[in-house]
Amino acid sequence: MNDYPNLQTALVSGAPYDWRASCRPERPYRHDYSQTLTLKLFLAQPSPDHTSSDVFMTFSQALENIRLMDQLTWGVPKIVYLVGWQYLGHDSQYPAWHQVNDALKRPCDDTALDSLLWLMREARHYHTVVSVHINMFDAYPNSPLWQTYLDKGLLVTEADGTLQKAGIWNGMQAYCVSYPREWDSGFAQKRIDEICSLLPLQEAGTVHLDAFNCREDPGHGLTLADSQAARRKIVRYWRDLGIDVTSEYLYSDWDLEADVQVDQLVGLQPMAYQLSQTLEDYLDRPASLLCGGCPHKRNKFGDTREIAPLFGAAMLPETLFRGGAGLPPPLREEFIRDFCQKQLRFFYLNSLERLEVSVTKAEVTARFSSGVTTRLHQGTMYRNGVCMQDASGCCIPAVWCGATILYTEVGGLVKYNLSQILDCPSNTTFRVEFLDGREMILPLDQGHLQLNLPPKTMIRLLACPS
What's the pTM value of the predicted model, to 2 decimals? Predict the structure, then answer.
């Protein structure tokens, strides 16, 4: 059946990975997602009649937004996945990935591919890796590969031989790629190899696979377990090429025999954009094994939506960047607030060991190493018994820039006990930096930092040499 022979693929395993043996990934990830701002930028989608592209952001505007994020975060490491970079935009003409969206091209470039390659290069100057958001599950009748996948039996079929339907996206019915059939034919490897020839994804070291669902394929006699095994082969093949696979969810498929949900890709998938876990999952799995954002819906039983902030959930700022380049003042304020109140908490808690959780009728409290506790319903974080975050603001170490970031939502007199938060001498002097370039020198007063700030202000604190 293999139309695309590749001797390397015969060595790729589809077996489950037992992450519990080591609490480490099967192979080291290319990036540390627990300390990286990982997000999507939505560029374009097909017009309603699928004859043109509705553009939200060009490649040039994407770079402007990356530059802005770099300025607003003091150079935090970032991974940006481009949504709608291909054909006419998001969910356009899968399973093909061969053509860059012409509507996103810079006027000075000969091709849209030239513009995309330019963006991927230039983003590096702003501490950003740019990669792409793609889909290996959906297939559309208007795809250049549709007839090939149909003729070779690479789509999921019902028992009566009819094509199994997926969702309807952009007004077009999608159908399901059969992972086992595509893998065994060599076409999965062919698709992956071809996009790696088109774009420097091996240099980027990461790719985002949207809607990486599994389906039974009754028409071809393939079970859900067959699909799950082929999906693991696909993830491992990407990793053989030096590329991490992140995805939309963790995909907690049902084990019908045991009647439980089983997370299929722990230790193979470093990050889920919407991560759904139980309290036990968070305690069992360190962030270096698996991390992600707060889920919009539950994919697992338990209080998964509510408990994610207890351990830190990544911000998901994609919806803020839908108007070309830049952010108007209200959205800029929202980005800064989410970065400080969500992303900084995410980074900081990910750097600590998760020790235990106590649950009472009134509160859920998590205890971490280094004397840190978080309280779910209060939304607070403490270290050494002093508050470092609540609804009014936060004061959290920022490891990537060797500083501490302070944010106030309400403004006025802001006071934090830095000697307890940072374990620094009570007479330490700090350089205070504002986003607009202003600076001031401020000594601690008996271990406390005190200053008046306007509402919705973020500042950076750097200890002065003693």
Answer: 0.95
